[in-house]
Write a structure and sequence with these properties.
- This protein is mainly beta and 389 residues long.
- The chain has three domains: 80 residues, Immunoglobulin-like; 85 residues, Immunoglobulin-like (Sandwich), CATH 2.60.40.10; 169 residues, Jelly Rolls (Sandwich).
- The chain contains two helices and 23 strands.
- The longest helix is centred in the first third of the chain and has 26 residues.
Length: 389
């Protein structure tokens, strides 16, 4: 009986020890940290980043947080740092979950919702090449927002111009409608851009480029005569100056300028009046001078200056390329060797002698009437467009 009692006592002690140890295990179970999470923004556009801050998470003393487990919905990360950034390259709503773990295995989780806005899609339809003089229309109405938001439009109509004068040639807003129209007035390549903005402020930009082509023209020359005249009265020693620009838009081929004096009313034995005529064309560096004379007692005193073959006279049609008829006309008038007579013409008339010089200085007419007539032979270009795009 003693042995049984001894065995029973031993079993009882073992059972009590087992119960005691089980109680100790409950007291030493891992303590849990407290997860806290802040974000700088919870609504972004595709391609942007969110900063996540879990540094205010805590764990009871003397335990320490040793790990931050991040689940961004598109990626996972295990970090010992409580501050991370994550870029979201896909649109949608993402539940980001953070789990903090301390050094005794305790853990706590928290989550936050992040909305990622899809970017709009900018699209343009229009020509890639036109001739000068064409009205170009570009249409951006096929641009879309994946989330069906209302779009705004910002067109930069020409990257070679800084219309807002901010030093950036690629951020001007020249049009805010869904279409852009402009006149292609000069040849070359023109570039620009369209930016669309959705109702949440996301933007998308696409560029466009159009080649502006010169036009072709046939040119023939037509000869024409143009006459201008002036008249007046000068007393002896006086001068009169005439300034004019003849035949704008044409070449001068030749001219004849004749100064005619009125007949004196007294018999011919009196000395005939004498005028000097000077013509100068400063842009051509040319001038000429003549004195009037009387060929017979029955004719008026005259003086003439003339010149021919001042510029070449093309006999055959020629084909040219230019941005416009006006640009071609300017090109033709500026051709080397064909610019003589352009610009201002100056005629100066001087009454060198307009006094009959009678005995006793009787002078019933101290001056004389004059008339200047100039006949120009001009060449007018006839410009006809040929060919199509």
């Amino acid at each position: 009986m003693k042995d049984i009692r001894g065995l029973t006592g031993s079993l009882l002690i073992a059972l009590l020890l087992s119960v005691s140890l089980a109680g100790c295990t409950g007291v030493l179970a891992p303590v849990s940290p407290t997860a806290r999470l802040e974000v700088d923004v919870d609504s972004i556009h595709v391609g942007e980043a969110v900063n996540f801050d879990a540094r205010s998470s805590t764990s009871p003393d003397p335990t320490l947080i040793t790990s931050y487990l991040w689940d961004f919905g598109v990626a996972q990360r295990n970090s010992s740092n409580g501050y991370v950034s994550q870029v979201f390259n896909e649109p949608g709503r993402f539940e980001v979950e953070l789990t903090v773990v301390n050094d005794v295995g305790g853990e706590d989780s928290i989550s936050v919702s992040i909305y990622v806005n899809a970017l709009p899609i900018a699209a343009i339809s229009g020509p890639i090449a036109v001739k000068t003089g064409t009205i170009v229309s570009l249409d951006g109405s096929s641009s879309t927002d994946p989330e069906n938001g209302v779009l705004q439009y910002k067109w930069d109509g020409d990257w070679s111009k800084d219309t807002n004068s901010d030093g950036n040639f690629q951020n001007d807003v020249d049009e805010t409608n869904s279409t852009l129209s402009f006149l292609a007035d000069s040849s070359g390549d023109i570039r620009g851009s369209l930016t669309v903005i959705d109702d949440k402020g996301a933007t998308s930009t696409t560029t466009w480029e159009i080649r502006i082509l010169e036009r072709s023209f046939n040119v023939t020359w037509r000869q024409q005569t143009m006459t201008v005249s002036w008249d007046g009265y000068l007393e002896q020693g006086e001068s009169y100056e005439i300034s004019h620009v003849p035949s704008q838009g044409s070449r001068i081929f030749g001219f004849n300028g004749t100064l005619t004096l009125a007949r004196d009313i007294v018999p011919a034995q009196w000395p005939e009046d004498n005028f000097t005529m000077l013509v100068s064309v400063p842009d051509s560096g040319w001038n000429a001078k003549v004195e009037t004379k009387q060929d017979s007692p029955t004719t008026n005193s005259t003086g003439s200056i003339e010149r021919t073959d001042m510029n070449p006279f093309p006999n055959e049609p020629t084909t040219y390329t230019a941005d416009s008829p006006d640009a071609l006309l300017e090109q033709l008038l500026l051709e080397p060797g064909a610019r003589f007579g352009q610009g201002e013409w100056i005629w100066k008339l001087t009454a060198d002698q307009a006094d009959p010089d009678l005995i006793d200085q009787i002078d019933p007419d101290p001056g004389n009437d004059w008339e200047l007539e100039v006949e120009f032979i001009i060449l007018i270009p006839v410009i006809l467009e040929v060919g199509t795009l």
